[in-house]
Amino acid sequence: MSKLIYRHLYARFALSLIGLALGYAITVLTRLPWWTLFLIAIAWVGIGIKLRWGRPLNARYRKVWPWSLAPLSLWGVYVYLADSFGNVDLGAVFFHLQAGMAEHGGAGKMVTAVVYTLCMLAVLASVTWLSRHDQRWRLMERFLAIGLLASNPLLFGLGQRSAAVVADEADWLDHRYVSPPTSTQEEAPNLLVLYLESIERTYDANQFGDAYEDLNRLGERGVVFEGVQQMDNTGWTMAGMIASQCGVPLMPAGLLHDSQFEPLRSVVPGIDCLGDILAAQGYRLSYLGGASTEFAGKGLFYRGHQFHNVKGKEELVRRLDDPDYVNSWGIYDDSLYDMTVDEIRRLDEADSGPWGVVTLSIAGHAPNGFPAQRCIERQGPFDEQDILYSVECSAWLARDLVDRLDNEGLLDDTVVAIMSDHLTMRVSVWDELTTMDRENTFILLGDHLPPQRIQRDATMLDAFPTILEALDFTLDGHRAGLGVSLLSDQETLVERHGLDTLNEHLREETALQHRLWEGLAPQRQEPSPSSQEQVIETPADRTDEVDIMR
């Protein structure tokens, strides 16, 4: 009798664990409120009790290992990624594994990952117990395993990339790539680029209050670009920087070379980016970031593309008056911007040619942000949850930095680019954001740029040629990389083909991937005349686009 009681309790416990996990996964992957997970779990347990799962009348115990354990584990990984970041980007996963995740600031994520792992092990143990004690589960879970494998977005994405690798070389994007200019001009303005971590323009909506207001006030002084969408493989920090400085999506090196499991020694070495172009012009280039340059290859990218002075958390923390005034990712933005002012003063006083400074903030980092002490003194206590508090902090500090530099005369003959590195990941207002048409921040300030708002269907790839033209570079057809200057009336790739089409071709592309990683990957072969014909949809399209792209 005691065995029956224990078996009854084990069955209820196993069903409850699986029900809670199922409810949690559904609420993460949909817009259902969090409390509905308990309703789903109750419904699941009710069905299990009604059908006597785990304690059938004709019980036949068999010591088996369920087929569904591996597929369930893969779904567990996917749910963890979706819960942590909102949108699961396989390109980001592959790139970070290869570029390195040392010195990351996600200590809290590590704890979450451990909790997820323990919960997943409990679910796997529950499925194993039910399969061993109920022959109906042994039969059902085999079909469950097939369904889980077929429906997992991770495996679907891997299958798409594998098919692209073994297929004939796809070059739709590569055929549209335009090498950036190498010519110089006599008078070159300075350049200041402020990347605001995850501060998308969508926060300008009324339902988010005044969180974005300081960026709106900055935009009144220059050019505000509206409609800048996010293409695949540009949705994390390093990818967003490469999109806006090189005009290409970041396609990870992946399986292109034999050492794909070794750390990268360079990042997109096959193309010229903003740093290469400006260095050839005689610019003195600096990068200052609050987080470590060891994380995700930032240091490799900037040093490899001609930035002379590259400093992150490790170098900047030594300059703090209070070495304990840091967060889990690195330097707070008020400290970073103080050091940015010092750096620009140094470069300006040297008076030996134009300078370029790039900074990356940290205040808006998902999920809750890292508001600086100056913001807390201005905005009041931070509840450690509200991302809008951190967005307001990031926007205000950026405006304050521009005002400080302007008041000192350090922005004379200077183009200032203010932009988000990418759309935000899962934050406290995620459900509201995901119902809206989301856009990246992109603002240009400069004495020769009259205030205006430009509405274009574009991506951050178009920021690259736009910045170059703002710096008075002459571009072939107003194009560089895959981007089009938004200061021109030339059609962007999104306007011509649509974002869905670009993303579809990106999933099939191999030629552009070879171009990015030239030197690490086998030599690209020039496409044959017949393959060039195949990338043009219509004769009319060919007449216009081939002339522009070459």
TrEMBL record:
Its placement in the membrane is given as:
Multi-pass membrane protein
Q: Keywords in alphabetical order, please.
A: Cell membrane, Membrane, Transferase, Transmembrane, Transmembrane helix
An example GO CC term for this entry is: plasma membrane
Q: Name one GO molecular function term.
A: transferase activity
**Isomerase listed as a keyword:** no
Q: Where is the composition biased (Basic and acidic residues)?
A: 539-550
Q: Segment Disordered: which positions?
A: 521-550
Q: Gene3D superfamilies from the xrefs?
A: Alkaline Phosphatase, subunit A
CDD domains under this entry? Answer: LTA_synthase (cd16015)
- Kindly list the places in or outside the cell where this protein is found, as annotated in its UniProt entry: Cell membrane
Asked whether the keyword Membrane is assigned, the reply is: yes
Identification of the protein by name: Phosphoglycerol transferase
- Compositional bias segments (type: Low complexity): 522-534
The Sulfatase N-terminal domain covers which part of the protein?
189-472
Span-the-membrane segments of this chain are 9-26, 32-52, 64-81, 110-131, 143-159
Q: What is its main location?
A: membrane
Task: Tell me the lineage of the source organism.
Answer: Bacteria, Pseudomonadati, Pseudomonadota, Gammaproteobacteria, Oceanospirillales
